[in-house]
Structure formats: C-alpha cells, structure tokens
Amino acid sequence: MSSSSALIEREPAVKTQAPDPSQFLLQMTTSYIPSAALWVAAELKVADLIGTGSKPVAELAKKTNTNEDALFRMLRLLAMTGIFTETEPRHFALTPPAEFLRSDHPQSMRDTVVWLADPFHFKIAAELLHSVRTGEPTVEHVTGKPAFEYFPTDAVEFDRFHRAMTNLSALAVNAALEAYDFSSRKTIVDVGGGHGFAICSILQKYPQMQGVLFDLKDIVPGGEKRIGELGMEKRCRTVHGDFFKAVPEGGDIYFMKHILHDWTDEQATTILRNCRRALEADAQTKRTGKVVLLEFVVPPGNQPHPSKVIDIEMLFFPGGRERMEQEWRDLFAGAGFRLTRIVPTKSPFSVIEAEIA
Predict the structure, then answer these.
(1) Arch. (CATH architecture) of 180-356
(2) C or N terminus of the chain, fewer CB within 10 Å?
(3) CATH number, span 21-105
(4) Rounded distance, CA 213 to CA 215, Å?
C-alpha cells in the first residue's frame, strides 16, 4: 500500500454540512425580495426580450425603458436563484425556469407569476397577522370586501386573476387528461368553469362528449369567446347562475377545477349538494354519475408541496382551504357522496372522483 493511498484512507469522508440556521432564517426573511424581482421581470417580459442566446443588459434596459444599473442588479439576483444566468459580465440568458416566463412558451407560467407575485399580493400579505388572529380572509380586512366582490371593482387585478386561472388550467388539465379517462361520460358540466379552458380541453380530447360551461353572468362571456374560437358552439353551451343556489341538470359528470378550495367546508358542502341534486334529477345519472375535482391533496407532516403555500393564499383571499385526503372524504360524506378514487398527476394537482353514496 502506498503512503498516498494510506493517507487517503485515513482521511474522513467529506460530510455535507447542514445550512447555518441563522443564514437560513435570513434567507427566508428576505425571500420576498426575489419574488418582487421575479414579478418585475415577468411584467417587463424580459424573458421574451432575451429569447434565445444571451443579451446585454444595456439592450434590455433600452427595450424596457428601465435604468440599466438597477435592471442589472435585479437580474443578477434572479440569476443567483437559478432564474436567468449571467453568461459574461452584464449579459444574461434564459435558464429552464426562465423559459417558462416566455409568453410564447406552450406551458408559459408568466400570467401566474404576474398574478401571484404582484404588488397587490404584497399589500394583502402584509396583513396576514389579522387572519392568523381572527381566521378571517385577509382581503376583507384590507379592502372591506370579500375577494369575489372586490375583484370586479379592480380591472387590473380582475384581469390578472383570470389570466392566471387560465394559465394554471393548462398546467392542471393537460396532466389530468393523461391520468384520468373521461371516455365513459356523455355530458360534462364544468361548474365554475371560468373562461372555458378546462372544458374545451376535455371536449377536444373526447369528441363524443357534450359540455355545459357554468359560471357567473359576468364570467360566461369569456368562455363563450373561447368556445366560439374553437368552433365548439354545437357541442358546448353556456349557462350562468350561482352554484350556491343550483347547478344545471343533465350532466353525468360534474367537474370542478380548483373550485372547492376557495370555500369553507360549509360552503363547499352546499355546492356539492347542488351537484347531487342535479345528478338525482335523472335515475340513470343518480346510479352512474360522478363528481370529479381537480384539486390539491395536502400531504401529511413536513412533506413539501405547493398546496401548503396556496393554502395561505386561500386565507389571503376567499377564505377557503387546501385539504388532506381525509378532509376530502369527510367533505364528500357530508354532501351524500363517497370518495372513490384519488388519481395523482404529473402536476401538483390530483383528480378526485366521487359518486352518490
């Protein structure tokens, strides 16, 4: 055995050091700063301007009408987090996460970033202590109105919210269509279907199905526009109304994408009971009809999952919550349903299926 190999064997293995607790706290305390910078980059469409290759900050500043030094410092910060990369001094290119900030990316997340990290969110988040003390939605404390009454009064936030919901629909629905088979269904009713991305995607994959897009009167026109652009007028009709009062009859599947998480257990139970009444209106669908949700299922313990972050978003705005598996089972049971399946997808969303108990 050589002296050098003996030396190597006597040296202890290099151990990965745990993060310094004080540094970790500092990182968490300042994490809102990269979030604010990310919003600026998304709002300015910096990723679109960089495109392929690398661009100098001077060029980006000129195109965005911003201060070159300030823009450089912001992009340097984002590059540190893995969003953008500095390829040479004061030149930046896209990283894989930054690609999703491009408006033309097929799975663009830009509209989601513009909504979730916008200045309005920072204003709401600053008052979280009120919600922790009272359990009440933060937005009502800040604006004096419930979330869905406030949004129509703020054209900018109303637009950002709906663009983000469509953006998230693409992430959730495409993954759900890979994981869950709708082929046995004849008519799908999309309850709270917004601007129609989900129901149109399902109908595109299953040409034998008919659809009903159901939402509030001021929301439905956005869905009608999408249905018309896709030439689906003969297969999908729109109905407006209040899902706390009733939902349209005639479906053999009642679908909701990220709807019930907006509401308290009592409110969500009311919506589910209205779906049950619609299914019970026809003897056949009473026996074979389904309720299918596209929602988060919160994992137990310390396991990381986006649902644990969005759960606080629910506390900020509508006052609802993200739910664990047993909480979903209990919610369905309270409305006369039995949870039959939870189907994970490639996205953070799961397909949750229930039938009349």
Answers:
(1) 3-Layer(aba) Sandwich (3.40)
(2) N
(3) 1.10.10.10
(4) 7
Closest CA to 60 of 52, 70, 71: 71
What is the chain's length?
357
Give all strands of the β-sheet with 337-344 in edge-to-edge order. 236-240, 210-215, 187-191, 253-257, 290-295, 350-356, 337-344
- Residue tagged 């100098």 (tokens): 56
pLDDT digits (tens, 9 = 90+) for 73-123: 999 999 999 999 999 999 999 999 999 999 999 999 999 999 999 999 999
Q: CATH 1.10.10.10 spans which residues of the chain?
A: 21-105
Report yes or no: 139 and 146 within 8 Å, Cβ to Cβ.
yes
**321-347 burial, b for 16+ CB within 10 Å, e for fewer?**
bbbeeeebbebbeebbbebeeeeebeb
CA distances from 71 to 34, 55, 60, 81 (A): 13, 13, 8, 16
As annotated, the residues of the chain forming the CATH 3.40.50.150 domain(s) are: 180-356
How is residue 51 written in tokens?
């495109």
pTM (whole model) above 0.70 = yes
